[in-house]
Amino acid sequence: MAAGSLSSSFSLYNSGYYTPRNSRGDGNNNASVTFNFRKRSLTCFSSKNKPSFVDQILDYIEGGPKLRKWYGAPDRLPKDGSVLEEDDKFSEKDEVRDAVLVTDGDNDIGQMIILSLIVKRTRVKALVKDKRSAVEAFGSYVEPMAGDTNDRSFQKKALRGVRAIICPNEGFLSQVESLKGVEHVIVLSQLSVYRGTGGIQAIMNSKARKLAEQDESIVMASGIPYTVIRAGSLQNTPGGKQGFSFKQGSTAQGRLSKEDAAFICMEALDAVPKRGLVFEVVNGEEKVSDWKECFAMLMEKAEQQLQ
Q1: Which domain of life does the protein's organism represent (predicted)?
Q2: To the nearest 5 percent, what fractions of the chain are helix, strand and coil?
Q3: Rounded CA gap, 34 and 17, in Å?
Q4: N or C, fewer C-beta in 10 Å, the chain?
């Protein structure tokens, strides 16, 4: 999918209801569907005959029983929520690392990433504040984890079976004692933005900046392949409408759509660097038709700088 020409857009706004509409289109060949995520709705529009990214999401979400059957999950969740509890009896020798952990399943970008992973039929684990709300939002397609991320036992449970971690915001990595077994860590960082602010804004961002600095430092020293995406100021604007710029220093003043940020995180998942990759990105004029090639070029440039 060409990043500069995404055929769908997400619009997030406050809502307290679930309203399915015709996702197959009307006489103008347009489609509109709204569905609820913890009092937050996602409105999707598509204008192409070919099934778009959002159309695929809607097909899976609306599939209901089919999707549950596809995952081998029960048709209904127990009212007591017992399906949410994991068996503490576990052997690391038998561990299969096939899950992707999203460290914030409550924010906009985290939810977009989760939906993208569902479409890719990836096993998803997500850190959330409320398990029940997460189950109501995503059904049995996601393994929600709620708890104290400073607690070592909770950290181990959250990272159990995880092959890759996607951090849509700062603060998680600085609390984790060990990332043993993880094969790739993706961090969406606002560090360049924080460093570019001054005055009262700098004071307000001081805590977030410290966490971002710690996260980047920890992942770079971990010895695990990592991708740090230093984004410009994140905006609630439609993704896929603009191109990109990867120029160094562009993030201090540049902006990036949240939808584009989520999309780039997903593309990074399949582009694992040998050691690590750090790059800046904002919306700009450069169109990206092949993200695999784009990441290869970014990695090559990073390797040259290390030599």
Answers
A1: Eukaryota
A2: 40, 25, 40
A3: 9
A4: C
Structure confidence by residue, pLDDT tens digits, 138-148 = 888 999 999 99
Task: Say how far apart CA 147 and CA 151 lie, in whole Å.
Answer: 8
Residue among 63, 54, 15, 3 at smallest CA distance from 31:
54
* CA-based torsion, 91, 88, 114, 206: positive or negative: negative
Backbone phi, then psi, for 281, in 5-degree steps?
-150, 135
Q: Which stretches within 27-162 are classed as H helix?
A: 53-63, 65-70, 108-119, 131-138, 152-159
Fill in the amino acid letter for 83. V
Mean per-residue pLDDT, 80-89: 47
User: Per-residue confidence at 93, pLDDT binned at 50, 70, 90?
Assistant: low
Helices (H), 226-280: 258-269
Dmax over CA atoms of the chain, in Å, equals: 58
Query: What is the DSSP track for 68-100?
Result: HHHTT--SS--TT-GGGPPPS---GGG----EE
pLDDT score, position 266: 96
| Full-model pTM | 0.75
Question: Which residue has tokens 């052997």?
Answer: 91
For 102, the 3-state DSSP assignment is strand
**Is 23 in contact with 33 (CB distance < 8 Å)?**
yes
Q: Which single residue is written with the structure tokens 């096939």? A: 98
What is the C-alpha separation between 277 and 4, in angstroms, rounded?
22
- Rounded to an integer, what distance in angstroms lies between the CA atom of residue 106 and that of residue 111? 7
Check if the beta carbon of residue 255 is closer than 8 Å to that of residue 216.
Answer: no
3-state secondary structure of 37: coil
pLDDT band for position 108 (cuts 50, 70, 90): very high
What one-character DSSP code corresponds to residue 154?
Answer: H
